[in-house]
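Customer escalation, tier 2.

The customer says the design service returned an amino acid string that "doesn't look like it belongs to this structure." They asked us to rerun it and document both sides in this ticket. The original structure tokens are below, unchanged.
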């Protein structure tokens, strides 16, 4: 199998395996640049896995403070119930958003894998 001829940012030769009878691996092949950019853009928009956890930690703090205020009599129980429902709705929306983002990321990764498999089929014939 031929090795990729690209030079890495560190100055060494890439150790990837060339595809499509070209001198480049998937990571360096110019035909796959758009797919790599799409995947990188998704990663940048996602903001890391920490952001939803920070949002949820904030909501948890608010719920704790709300419970304390209700127990101290500083907040009406009816008002607290409505605020609690709204915060729970926010938690659910955050959870759904996170699942949707993860699903989009998985779709992108699957598309990249399918492209790589198709490239291998084209180079080596049908996979068995």
């Amino acid at each position: 199998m031929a090795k990729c001829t690209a030079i890495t940012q560190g100055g060494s030769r890439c150790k990837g395996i060339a595809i499509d009878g070209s001198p480049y691996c998937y990571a360096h092949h110019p035909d796959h640049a758009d797919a790599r950019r799409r995947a990188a853009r998704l990663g940048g928009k996602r903001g890391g896995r920490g952001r939803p956890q920070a949002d949820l930690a904030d909501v948890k703090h608010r719920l704790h403070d709300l419970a304390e205020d209700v127990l101290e009599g500083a907040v009406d129980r009816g008002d607290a119930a409505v605020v609690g429902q709204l915060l729970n709705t926010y938690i659910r929306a955050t959870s759904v958003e996170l699942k949707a983002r993860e699903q989009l990321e998985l779709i992108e990764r699957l598309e990249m894998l399918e492209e790589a498999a198709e490239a291998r089929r084209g180079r080596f014939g049908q996979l068995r």
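Tier 2 assessment: The sequence is consistent with the input. DSSP finds three helices and no strands in the chain. The CA atoms of residues 40 and 115 lie 17 Å apart. Sent an explanation to the customer and offered a walkthrough call.
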